[in-house]
Amino acid sequence: MKLTLYNKIKISDVIANKNNNFNLIRMLAAIAVIISHSFALSLGDRTHEPIKNLLGISLGEIAVDIFSSPVDYLLPEVCCSEMT
């Protein structure tokens, strides 16, 4: 689809093409989980994670929120489209 001033891109077109940034966001969240788990694996204790000490929430917990957020936005659209 060629973008010009006269045609509009629909969200459904972007999601259907898999040409979007959801995969990038998911990859970054997966890397965040690996980094978060690396502290527990290498040091034997996850309390040494710097983000947890700084913010009170671990990088892995933030990554899980990132994983679930797109699903929260897309699931109602899928459910509503199947009902019609």
| Number of distinct beta strands | 0
Summarize the main sheet. Answer: none
Give the overall silhouette: elongated
Q: What is the number of helices?
A: 4
How far from one another are the termini? 27 Å
- What class, by secondary structure content? mainly alpha
Percent of residues in beta strands? under 5%
Low-confidence stretches: none
- The averaged pLDDT comes out at 76
Return the domain count.
1
Structural notes for this entry:
The chain is mostly helical. It has one domain. The protein has helices at residues 11-17, 22-43, 50-55, 59-83. It starts with 10 loop residues before the first helix and ends with a helix.
Short description:
This protein has 84 residues and is an all-alpha fold.
List the helices and strands and how they pair.
Layout: H1 11-17, H2 22-43, H3 50-55, H4 59-83
Helix pairs in contact: 2-4
Keywords:
elongated, 84 residues, mainly alpha
